Amino acid sequence: MGKTKIIKPKIDEAKVEAPAKSSGKSQKRKVENGRVYISASYNNTIISITDSRGAVIAWATAGSLGFSGPKKATPFAASKVVAALAEKVEKTGPVNVEVYVSGVGGGRDSSVRSLLNHNFNIVSIKDVTPIPHNGPKSPKVRRV
User: Fold this and answer.
1) Does the global pTM surpass 0.85?
2) Does residue 2 lie in a domain region?
3) Other C-beta atoms lying within 10 Å of the C-beta of residue 82
4) How many structural domains is the chain composed of?
5) Over 60: is that where the pLDDT of 121 sits?
6) Are the CB atoms for 38 and 99 separated by under 8 Å?
């Protein structure tokens, strides 16, 4: 068990570049096309903006803006969520967006209208609300 001699090849320091340091956050880059996912439930409105591959750029909810209780599902709260997101992605975010709307809450229509008012160019709007095609029997109606 003697020492083994390791021979290292000589490397010119002029040819080798130092690796770029990566910080914890991803680098901001300009995104032209993207997607906006709107989830409007009876209790809250959640909106997230992604690039064309699906990587999330920014997101916001009515609850994160300070709305509480039943006020989170209102159209006014949904328009404020879009305003906050437009401010977040003002410099880097997408201009041409495809909108995917899911859910039955009150913030569905007002959030799409607010996207138009905040200089987003809407390419398409798609409703992706899940609809059952006669699956299992639904539970009994609650009687109070």
Assistant:
1) no
2) no
3) 26
4) 1
5) yes
6) yes
